[in-house]
Amino acid sequence: MRQKLLSEGANELTYEIREIVKKARLLEDEGVSIIWENIGDPVNKHNQIPGWMKEIVQELVGENDSYGYCDSKGVPETREFLAQINNEIGGAQITPEDILFFNGLGDAISTVYHLLEPTARVIGPSPAYSTHSSAEAAHANHHPITYTLDPENNWYPDVDDLYNKVKYNPNIVGILIINPDNPTGMVYPREILDRIMEIAKEFNLFLISDEIYHRITYNGAEACALAEVIDDVPGIAMRGISKELPWPGSRCGWMEYYNRDSDEEFSRLCKALDDAKMIEVCSTTLPQKAIPKILGDPRYAEYRDQLNQEIGKRSEFIADTLHAVPELTFNKTYGAFYNTIVFKEGTLTPDQHLEIDNPKVQALVDEWTQDVSLDSRFVYYLLAATGICVVPISSFCSDLYGFRITLLEEDEELFQHTFTTMRDAIRTYLDS
Ligand SMILES: Cc1ncc(COP(=O)(O)O)c(C=O)c1O
């Protein structure tokens, strides 16, 4: 090539949640049966989409215009419906023009950071959901800038750490919140969100709030939406149907712009987002048409409550099972469907292991565990010895050692087997 092709930022595009699948597939070839705990796809974990929802989609499949392009910003009736839902909570008010649809929230995330000046940085949580941190870092040609989520304080954002990072780094123009959070499963109290808004006001920043899990809360928690706390700060809420319905294969998510006209630069960003989608024509039509019909159906709230209760029950079982391991820092979860479990400092060492009978599998593990973080080493042993596929937390922009699990398995027996096997394997590994 006459010129270097790749930007430095391209090195930031890593996604261990999918990367680990390649290793698991190699183990499958050696006869290891894999339990997929790496990805938040409820359908993959035996969730059955209810008949009434399928009927709504079937009916839409019969309509001719479901096959066409829709408006660039998205189906007008759906944006009208969603604006109304937002406005009813009584916070920041929006019109359908403040809503922009994407092909999944992943598309929204990569587009928003891509449009920012490389020197304009958005600080995000650590541990980080890598779709945000990688896309932000790739745009900046630099590593992500993060504030700490504190496992010793329910995984809540360390607001002092956030304040100091913002204060001493004038390149920071925005703050990302994920609430309820992936990967920690935590739901943030209003006081914390209010303090984050104060920081945004003091330093003239905008907010991004990823609320894809907004309706997935349990154990008595409810999530506070950005629109409720944002006051006059400019911000973007990100929503979607991948997790809630769940319909991850629909590739359908959207942004809501709050206080769009309160700041000229922010207003230009919103316009650029709209323009970028126009160049692409539009996002997926059929799932957008389904949104008002499904979310507006009287059966929806009850259905979601039921699923939430089941996730809550699973969270209790996992807490009871893994709490028993004193080397782990464990927080009970309240939202989304993940938990991040941390090994206490000094408990992991480079010579721990699990028994593996198959020499070919052992050879693979030996290869993978050369020169890796101590939590990746644990994760690869767990995968090879038990088939349980989790994700190391050091791959979520974190200095901590631990792993992320999901709370999704709907096959009760398999679910209980997974977490008791995991507990026993952790014990054996730590004692080895
Ligand atoms: C916090 C968060 N945001 C966005 C996404 C991406 O969702 P989508 O399927 O709409 O691209 C995910 C998926 O796991 C997520 O956890």
Task: Detail the poorly predicted runs.
Answer: none
Bound molecules: pyridoxal-5'-phosphate
Q: What is the CA-based Rg, rounded?
A: 22 Å
Shape: globular
Major β-sheet, in short? Answer: 8 strands, mixed
Q: Specify the helix fraction band.
A: 40-55%
Total DSSP helices: 14
At the first level of CATH, what is the class of the largest domain? Alpha Beta
* Structural class determined from secondary elements: alpha/beta
| Strand order of the biggest β-sheet | 2-9-8-7-6-3-4-5
Portion in strands: 5-15%
* CATH architectural name of the largest domain: 3-Layer(aba) Sandwich
Q: Summarize model confidence as the mean pLDDT.
A: 95
CATH topology description of the largest domain: Aspartate Aminotransferase, domain 2
The CATH superfamily title of the largest domain: Type I PLP-dependent aspartate aminotransferase-like (Major domain)
End-to-end separation: 50 Å
Order of helices and strands: HEHHEHEHEEHEHEHEEHHHEEHHEEEH
Number of β-strand runs: 14
The number of domains is: 2
What would you note in describing this structure?
It is a single chain. The chain folds into two domains: 8-48 and 300-431, Aspartate Aminotransferase, domain 1; 63-295, 3-Layer(aba) Sandwich (Aspartate Aminotransferase, domain 2), CATH 3.40.640.10. A hairpin with an 8-residue loop joins strand 10 (328-329) and strand 11. The chain has an eight-stranded mixed beta sheet with strand order 2-9-8-7-6-3-4-5, sandwiched between helices. The chain is of the alpha/beta class and 432 residues long. Helices cover 43% and strands 14% of the residues. The radius of gyration is 22 Å and the shape is globular. The structure holds pyridoxal-5'-phosphate (PLP). Pyridoxal-5'-phosphate binds next to helix 4.
